[in-house]
Amino acid sequence: MTQTLATRSRLKIYKASPELYDAMMVLSTAAAKDVDPALGELIKIRASQMNRCAFCLDMHTRDARKIGVSEQKLDLLSAWAEAAGVFDDAERAALALTEAITELGHAGVSDDVYEDAAAVFSDRELGQVIAMAVTINAWNRINAAVRTPPPRR
Question: Could you tell me which NCBIfam families the record lists for this protein (predicted)?
Answer without folding.
Answer: ahpD_dom
